[in-house]
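User: Here's a chain of 119 residues. Predict its fold as tokens.
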Amino acid sequence: QVQLVESGGGLVQAGESLRLSCAASGNIFSINTMGWYRQAPGKQRELVAAISSGGSANYADSVKGRFTISRDNAKNTVYLQMNSLKPEDTAVYYCHAFQSMATIQTDYWGQGTQVTVSS
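Assistant: Prediction complete.
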């Protein structure tokens, strides 16, 4: 069992920055990819950024150049630095972790943190 707890969301103006954090706890062994998804009102949940245990990162086109994902494996924490925020970034941001072991593969989700960007 893995628990993911997000923090760092809030209300900001366009152009400002936020840093989201996601701490994993519990049975954190063999967690491979961690990432961030977001879901805006009336929209489907979409991948924002993901990072492998080896540090390889992928980003949605809409956030490339503005967001940076990183992780601290020793602390079992993943971060999302969000710069130059836009109103269209407004969404609930969810932390995600994928755990792959010999006998089981599991997706874990945090409860989400709200990011609101005003014009």
